[in-house]
Amino acid sequence: MRAGLVEGKSAAITGAAQGIGLEIARLLHEEGAKVMILDVNEDQAASAAASLGEGAVGRGCDVTDEDSVRDAVEATVAEFGCLDIFVNNAGITRDSSLGKMTLADFEAVLNVHLKGSWLGVRAASAVMREAGSGSIINMSSLSGKSGNFGQSNYSSAKAGIVGLTKSAAKELAHKGVRVNAVQPGLIRTPMTEAMPPDIFAAREADIPMKRAGEPREVAGAVLFLASEHSSYMTGAVLEVGGGRLM
User: Fold this and answer.
1) pTM score > 0.90 for this model?
2) Burial of 95 (0-12, 13-18, 19+ CB in 10 A)
3) Which residues are designated catalytic?
4) Cα angle value 174/77/130 (rounded, 5°)
């Protein structure tokens, strides 16, 4: 029986009670990591952890709150003895055209995605610098590269995460801490499947592979960046979009 790619490691994943975040937690767990499932909904986080079994713990975490993020990192270290992998995955959408979007909806999306990722990078890297190693993975999006109609907030936040990733990577590389990002494209989740069928089909038709991706395919990219197979990679941005923006 082969050893898992992250055997003996510990990981914390934000926004991991469902969707892509839960699939990331599941794959890291399958590959040998102990996982801390963080989510603003503590009950859902606990249920998600229970579904994975031994070596998975659920905890509430508001990624927009500095103390909550710091406490989550400290709780992971207390539970597992270390923090090797941190995934900034939590996100929300508040879609609307530029003229109709409220300032509150613009700020809410930036707070969760960009501020939340910054707080996660800062808290996780404080622990990892002391250990002399660690991998931080930030979830961006292809919409941060191309922009999406009705998503000036989301696209801005996801573009900002790329800048955050590269700046943090430069600051932390000499401490043995790697920071990379993943940019998913159209992924089949409950959120995207709620789109009108004709819109979803049109978006799939624009993808060279002619299909939406699966959460597991995004998780696979995260696993690679979390593992020693990417040990000489930092500041990288991996597209998982079926070739959409080639």
Assistant:
1) yes
2) middle
3) 154
4) 25
